[in-house]
Amino acid sequence: MTDSLDHAVPPAAAARSSPIRYSRPAMLLHWTIAACFAFQIGLGWRMDAPRGPQTFATFQLHKSIGITILLLTLVRIAWRLKSPAPAYPATMKPWEKALAHAVHITFYVLLLGLPVTGWLLVSASRTAVPTLLFGTIPWPHVPGIPGLAPDARGAVEAAAEFGHHALIYISYLVLFLHVAGALKHQFLERGGDLARMLPAPSRALGAAAVAAVLALAGIALVALTLPLRPIARTQPTPVPTRSATLAEPAATPASAAPRVPAATPTPAPLATPVAAPSAAMPSRWTVRRAASSLGFHTSWSQGQVDGHFGTWDATILFDPGALDASSVKVTIDMASASTGVPDTEGALPGDDWFAAATHPRASFVASTFRHRGGDRYEAIGTLTIRGTSRPLTLPFTLAITGDIATMSGTVVIDRTRFGIGQGEWASTTDVPAGVTVAVAIKADRAR
Question: How many CB atoms lie within 10 A of CB 417?
């Protein structure tokens, strides 16, 4: 993968000033880019495999390495423009020099074109997944692309995807020609071509060339087998902006929410009928922010996805002795959904999922309650998401000790009935229809 701008210098000037080897910074940049490219090949093969729990992390690392190659290539070009390149060996025929020069130029096109088309592809994607370089450094989308009209953005996405895949196949061919040509001149013609880019004495060039090829192959193999885990982000605690009775619980880890089975069984016949009217009045309850959570649990290609909503309001009027007069209204800020994994988290507010821009809030409103015996109750109401309302019965348990209430409930909702998951995500192959919603509340009786 010797330099593609090697011979942009006029022949006369090259003859006067051409060094025997590339400079050490040029060598360092060359082999660093080569190592990144080999690693990217391994990741690319891995991304063609069936999706699984590590897929998000693989895509994020692939993007990180791609942007790294882009930046290193720009530095390499800048260095080459100010630093002379060694001449080709005198043993090379004119057609071989022309072919080598064409291969080098093509490599630069690939090293710039592959990351740029990938960057365009990510920027135009409907899922709008953000890019965090190595899980820490935010990298923006291509300016202007995310704001395009859906049809225009789709056209950019399709063109970028085609270009990216075409360049991948071209890179395999060019890489083969590059390595084969270098080894041919070194071992068959003893032309010393490798001496320009390998920091090894002449007598060790053959061994160094073989070691370099094996090392790059090993890097690709490492990328293909390296265990990857999604990188979680710590979410800040939201600042309260509501009154005491419209509490917004702090962002708490999804693990704090009670874990539940994959489905909620159909309720058994009622133990007691709906409460008869009573003269008692329900109490107003104030939610404790730090001790309450609203979470959701699902899976993506068999990988667990645990999330929570950082901002939601709850107006609660409830008393076990006044079920007929009790009511609850929960309003959820859909843009506050968090999974701790940037890939899924960045996609959720988009039009394919929660459509938070046009439907910023979801709500659950209930004014009918049933006592199922002991500490078990049901809230019967209406859930509204993305502007679609459906009846929902939420089973929950409740314990009241003095003026402190502790409540927890879980329910499985069918996301497809609310239009959550559009286009390719409407299918339940990768993301199941059933999503478990879990709520845990600790509240104080208002005086």
Answer: 12
Q: Residues 316-358: pLDDT tens digits?
A: 999 999 999 999 999 999 999 998 776 677 788 888 899 999 9
Sign of the Cα torsion 117, 122, 123, 126 reads positive
Return the DSSP state at 51. P
Q: Is the distance from CB of 220 to CB of 39 less than 8 angstroms?
A: yes
C-alpha span between 349 and 385 (Å, rounded): 12
Query: ∠ CA 164-8-17 to the nearest 5 degrees?
Result: 140
Q: Could you tell me which residues come within 8 angstroms of residue 98 by beta carbon, excluding any fewer than 6 positions away?
A: none
Query: What is the C-alpha separation between 9 and 321, in angstroms, rounded?
Result: 91
The token duo for 371 is 């006592």
CB 224 within 8 A of CB 45: yes
Asked if the model's pLDDT at residue 85 lies above 90, the reply is: no
- Residues 372, 411: Cα–Cα separation, whole Å: 16
Short-list 267, 276, 269, 271, CA closest to 373: 271
Cα separations in angstroms, 430 against 51, 264, 302, 389: 8, 21, 8, 25
CA 210, CA 198: separation in Å to the nearest integer?
Answer: 11
Instruction: Report residue 234's pLDDT band, with 50, 70 and 90 as the boundaries.
Output: very low
Give first-to-last CA distance, the chain, whole Å: 76
**Considering the entire predicted model, what is its pTM?**
0.53
User: What is the DSSP code (8-state) at residue 147?
Assistant: T
pLDDT, tens digit, 9 for 90 and up, residues 59-84:
888 888 999 999 999 998 888 888 77
Phi, psi of 420 (to 5 degrees): -85, 110
Instruction: Compute CA distances 152 → 140, 158, 347, 425, whole Å.
Output: 19, 10, 19, 20
Both tokens of residue 363?
A: 């709500």
Report DSSP letters for 342-411, one per residue: HHHHHHTTSTTTT-TTT--EEEEEEEEEEEEETTEEEEEEEEEETTEEEEEEEEEEEEEETTEEEEEEEE
